[in-house]
């Protein structure tokens, strides 16, 4: 059987630590084409991977390359156009989170996926963690009962990736759309994707171009000047149909002891949290806590494997474009609520 030909649009950080190793680990595929607007990075990656096709423009890549599937891992402001170009050229598309800059863009992408019948998967990689997968199974087998409250967060003491991430015109937002989106999406998925009704959101930009030594993200971007016109800390309370509520918080910079992430899920039969994954429930009127064993999973490897499975087997993806649209609607509403200081209804 001939191998699935893979094209990469955007060969920056996550392409290098996430997508490339994941495709290289899958014997069913080969990377045949790459694209990046940064010529130096494009040529270095061409050399590194030994691929023949390298493009500076994704429209040219879609017109000329016979690749079957693509990963879109560019700045957020080109997710929509690169994805649509791929779908229209008949390619299956895995687009990084956040799906787009806004719900309007995400809806456009999803509409083209439906029109063309091409596979569109959103890179919500957090769903693939061993803990998230096991917790989802516990929820689906009824161990937590009716889930009515979820709390989650992705918090960094100092971790503003700077560069384009902190430039609203290219990112669409800061900590919330960058890392809060993982916690938000994973929670919403664990809750069984309830319909969002309204949002109260709060955002701050307190640190800007902080000078204290901290973690470095996207190392090749730290020297780039940035506008810092985005949130470095956001929180939100989201109300869903069925009397369900989600609290989500995310920060790139916050005066906490250390960076951490958490997930808590509360139902009327049991509660659960990670890390590690623990279940809190009653057994014959005794309160019991159970630590659930989980697998160590490389998120992008699991995500890419699922993408290729769906492509080859014609299966529906567990991360469809519709999910990306709903998450973008919630993100839009959080930012709007923070700006207007009012509760925002989601249609
Ligand atoms: N799932 C995750 O855990 C995860 C982690 C990091 C980043 N991401 C997402 O991946 C995307 C890329 O992030 P990154 O950290 O790799 O950023 P990066 O800046 O390191 O890499 C992005 C690359 O895209 C290129 N690019 C920008 N616009 C382009 C265009 N129009 N056409 C072709 N190339 C273009 C840039 O030159 C750069 O090389 C973002 O959407 C980000 O949110 C996801």
Can you describe this structure?
- The chain is an alpha/beta fold.
- The protein has helices spanning 13-24, 39-49, 58-64, 79-88, 103-116, 130-140, 168-171, 175-190, 299-313, 321-340; strands spanning 4-9, 29-35, 53-55, 69-72, 92-96, 120-123, 147-155, 196-204, 233-240, 244-251, 260-267, 270-274, 278-283, 286-291, 344-345.
- Helix 5 links the parallel strand 5 (92-96) and strand 6 (120-123).
- The longest helix is centred in the last third of the chain and has 20 residues, at 321-340.
- It is globular, with a radius of gyration of 20 Å.
- It binds nicotinamide-adenine-dinucleotide.
- Nicotinamide-adenine-dinucleotide (NAD) binds next to helix 1.
Name the average pLDDT.
Answer: 95
CATH class of the largest domain: Alpha Beta
CATH superfamily of the largest domain: Dihydrodipicolinate Reductase, domain 2
What structural class should be given to the helix and strand makeup? alpha/beta
Please tell me how large the radius of gyration is. 20 Å
Number of helices: 10
The domain tally reads 2
Helix content: 25-40%
User: How many distinct beta strands?
Assistant: 15
CATH architectural grouping of the largest domain: 2-Layer Sandwich
Low-pLDDT stretches are none
Largest sheet: 9 strands, mixed
Percent strand equals 25-35%
């Amino acid at each position: 059987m001939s191998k699935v030909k893979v094209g990469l649009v955007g060969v920056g950080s996550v392409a290098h630590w996430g997508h490339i190793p994941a495709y290289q680990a899958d014997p069913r595929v080969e990377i045949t084409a790459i694209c990046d607007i940064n010529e130096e990075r494009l040529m270095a990656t061409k050399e590194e991977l030994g691929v023949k096709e390298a493009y500076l423009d994704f429209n040219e890549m879609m017109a000329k390359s016979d690749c079957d599937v693509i990963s879109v891992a560019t700045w957020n402001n080109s997710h929509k156009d690169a994805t649509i170009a791929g779908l229209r050229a008949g390619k299956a598309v895995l687009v990084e989170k956040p799906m787009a800059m806004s719900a309007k863009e995400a809806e456009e992408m999803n509409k083209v996926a439906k029109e063309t019948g091409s596979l569109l998967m959103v890179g919500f990689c957090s769903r693939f963690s061993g803990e998230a997968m096991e917790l989802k199974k516990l929820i689906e087998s009824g161990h937590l009962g009716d889930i009515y409250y979820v709390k989650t967060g992705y918090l960094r003491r100092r971790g503003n990736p700077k560069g384009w991430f902190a430039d609203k015109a290219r990112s669409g937002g800061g900590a919330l759309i960058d890392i809060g989106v993982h916690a938000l999406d994973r929670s919403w998925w664990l809750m069984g994707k309830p319909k969002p009704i309204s949002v109260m959101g709060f955002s701050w930009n307190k640190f800007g171009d902080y000078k204290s030594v901290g973690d470095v993200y996207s190392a090749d971007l730290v020297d780039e000047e940035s506008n810092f016109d985005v949130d470095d800390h956001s929180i939100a309370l989201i109300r869903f149909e069925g009397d369900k509520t989600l609290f989500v918080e995310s920060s790139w910079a916050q005066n906490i002891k250390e960076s951490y992430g958490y997930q808590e899920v509360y139902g009327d039969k049991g509660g659960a949290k990670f890390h590690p994954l623990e279940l809190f429930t009653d057994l014959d009127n005794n309160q019991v806590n159970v630590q659930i064993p989980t697998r160590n999973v490389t998120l992008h490897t699991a995500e890419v494997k699922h993408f290729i499975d769906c492509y080859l087997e014609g299966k529906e993806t567990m991360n469809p474009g519709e999910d990306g649209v709903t998450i973008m609607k919630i993100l839009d509403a959080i930012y709007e609520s923070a700006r207007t200081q009012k509760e925002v209804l989601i249609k």
